[in-house]
Amino acid sequence: xxxxxxxxxxxxQAGDSLRLSCAASIYTFDNFAMAWYRQAPEKERELVAxxxxxxxxxYSDSVKDRFTIARDNTKRRLALQxxxxxxxxxxxxxxxxxxxxxxxxxxxxxxxxGQGTQVTVSI
Length: 123
What we know:
Elements lengths: L3 E4 L2 E4 L4 E7 L7 E8 L6 E6 L5 E3 L7 E6 L4 E6 L8 E9 L12 E2 L3 E6 L1
Parallel strand pairs: 2-11
Antiparallel strand pairs: 1-3, 3-8, 4-5, 4-9, 5-6, 7-8, 9-10, 9-11
């Protein structure tokens, strides 16, 4: 049973920073690639960033140079540091996991999901 629980969302102003965290109840956490997705109202869910088993990362163009994804395999936690937030970053953010033996940050195929945490950025 895989359980992912996000925390850290909230209401901030444009230009502020926020750090999301995801606690994973995965015994073999270091065998899973992880990711952050987001879904804004009336939009499809989109990949924000992903990280491979050993820390290789991928970022969408919209967040590159502003967001940083990181994992702590010992604590079984995933984080997303979000800096210089913009109104268009407003969305529900989801933690996602996928079992894989490859050390490549995936862009699809995630099959375990958290419930999400709301991030709202006001102008």
